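Summarise what follows for lecture notes:
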Amino acid sequence: LLLPHLLVQAAMCGGATLLPLAPGSAGLRITVILGAVGHFVFSLLETSRPHPTENGRQGAAFLSTLRLGPLRLFREGMLIGVVAAIPLVFVAPILVPAVVLGGLFLYEHAFVRAGQLPPLS
């Protein structure tokens, strides 16, 4: 699921980055919203689907436990990057890039760190 997830994230980030330059663009709004929803769906699939290896199962379990200061990375990444971004597309398009990219940073930090935590032997 990694390649389709990365393509959805790329579309979401591209649309979010361009949205302040054309805040009235319906196409960019739809791109950001569909990208955010797709990112949310792929993220849930990653945590809930069965993994073929024990290290994969451990990494998926670690996603919900990782923190950066007071932030729970996976949860806040989803809340900021998806839940907060969708209404901002209509209310304050100038803030959308910071919210989407910030939420994606938190998610990716958790995703990479969770894969590094299971023991190798």
